Amino acid sequence: MASVLLLFLVFVFDLTAFGLAVAAEQRRTTWKLLMNQEIQATVYEKDIATGLE
After folding, report:
1. Looking at residue 12, what is its pLDDT?
2. CB 43 within 8 A of CB 30
3. pTM exceeds 0.85
4. Helical ranges in the chain per DSSP H
5. Which residues of 29-44 are buried (b: 16+ CB within 10 A; e: fewer)?
6. What does the alpha-carbon distance between residue 40 and residue 20 come to, in Å, rounded to a whole number?
């Protein structure tokens, strides 16, 4: 009986970790390439960790 409970707890923790990883991946800083006739630059979106733009 204890092994079934342990397997259930491990499964729940695994699903929780997977959900947190997916959420963290979606909140990552994104970027886009700005190509102008004069310059080429990488423009980053707002940084979640620092709040800087």
Report:
1. 98
2. no
3. no
4. 2-26
5. eeeeeeeeeeeeeeee
6. 35
